[in-house]
Amino acid sequence: MSQPIPIIYNAASRPLRQLLGRDFRASAAITPQQMESCQLLIEKARRDFFDQSSPDVEMLQWLADEMLATHGPDDPVELAQQRLNQLHRQAGDHGFALVCWLCKQMMVVLTAELEPIKKMKIYQRLIWALMLAYEKQVVDDGRSIGLQLNEQAALHF
Amino acid sequence: MHYHLHSKRNITVKSAIAERLQHVHVMIVTMNPQVADIIAQMLAKLFFTNTRSVFTTADAIATMRHTRIDLIVTDYEIRAGRGAPEYALFERAMPAHQVLTGIHFIERLRNSPASPNPYVPVLLLGQDGSDAFIMGARDAGADEVLVKPLNGYDFCNKLISIIDNARDFVTAPTYKGPCRRRNRRSTPREEERRVQDVRLLRYEDGFRL
């Protein structure tokens, strides 16, 4: 018969419970109004982020051109990832916050655990959203791009 | 008058909650100041006013050495940073600009002999909701995981879960962290109990074996 595995359960190691008291219930302390305030804070932070990134419009075109010039729909995921890493570094060196953010989101898509075909499909849609936003001149404050990308990839925060 | 009394009582209850929560020292670990800012603002809305942000794991460990930290909110990516405590925790020197994962940080925090506090509850923010990531975070010893894009309601619910449903801390040869079993049902005693359950369920649903 095999030896039992020694496991120690330590109920005393609940620092927050000790600190706040046994009667404290966070579910009662945190109200729906507070939750809503938190959500509003996040939404405001996103709006501010895009507003601050507005001067990067020219860089968006550069990014879209660069990506379209180097990627076809049949390219392997690794190639897209390599190129994005390079673009991310270049944009970072120039301090282009929005471009950095876009590269990051695309990398998140490419590194997600999805089938390669699905990944490339999402990736292509991201580029398409970028181009569409640029061509329709809706990139006046960067927000429109953000809203479109939000549906496709995880956000910066 | 009734309304006045009611709101006065609410204010008293609120200040009692705020009084308790302001004693909770929260540390936010991220390499992104914007993330740190938004998390701190959300925590302040929830009366966690005692927060501090650090941008490297070296600073995180150094802070934990001289300040009591009761809760950590860590991002998925963190820079190593410079400092002796960093090397002590990770047991090998690494470049200051090296980017580590939050999972790695939690794993060392729980298991390293040099860890200032292996028991501290940790909320991990992730960018990837894949099974591999969630399981990695669970096995490293994260208390809760919140996948980005952040959502205010989810953030609050994770905090509630950490406080109200704190799990026993487990120390085993292959794992150290909050108990990974979330439901508290006892294990089946009789043999073939599950087969009996399936039979019962099918019978109740109108099926015949």
What does this entry look like structurally?
The complex is a heterodimer of chains A (157) and B (209). With 157 residues, chain A is mainly α. Chain A has helices at 15-20, 26-29, 32-52, 57-70, 77-94, 97-111, 116-135, 143-150, and one strand at 8-10. Chain A starts with 7 loop residues before the first strand and ends in a 7-residue tail after the last helix. Chain B is of the alpha/beta class. In chain B, strand 1 (26-29), helix 2 and strand 2 form a beta-alpha-beta unit. Classes of the chains: A mainly alpha (157), B alpha/beta (209). Strand 1 (8-10) of chain A pairs antiparallel with strand 8 (169-172) of chain B, so a sheet runs across the interface.
Strand-helix topology:
The complex is a heterodimer of chains A (157) and B (209).
Chain A: E1 8-10, H1 15-20, H2 26-29, H3 32-52, H4 57-70, H5 77-94, H6 97-111, H7 116-135, H8 143-150
Helix pairs in contact in A: 4-5, 4-7, 5-6, 7-8
Chain B: H1 2-21, E1 26-29, H2 33-45, E2 51-54, H3 57-66, E3 71-74, E4 77-79, H4 84-90, E5 99-101, H5 102-111, E6 122-126, H6 131-140, E7 144-147, H7 152-164, E8 169-172, E9 175-178, H8 193-204
Parallel strand pairs in B: 1-2, 1-3, 3-6, 6-7
Antiparallel strand pairs in B: 4-5, 8-9
Structural class of chain B comes to alpha/beta
Distance between the termini of chain A: 52 Å
What is the subunit arrangement here? Answer: heterodimer
Largest sheet of chain B: 5 strands, parallel
- The portion of residues forming beta strands of chain B comes to 15-25%
Which sequence of SSEs, written as H and E, runs from N to C of chain B?
A: HEHEHEEHEHEHEHEEH
Name the overall outline of chain A: extended
Q: Which parts of chain B are unreliable, with pLDDT below 50 for 5 consecutive residues or more?
A: 1-5
Question: What's the overall average pLDDT of chain B, rounded?
Answer: 81
Report the helical percentage of chain A: 55-70%
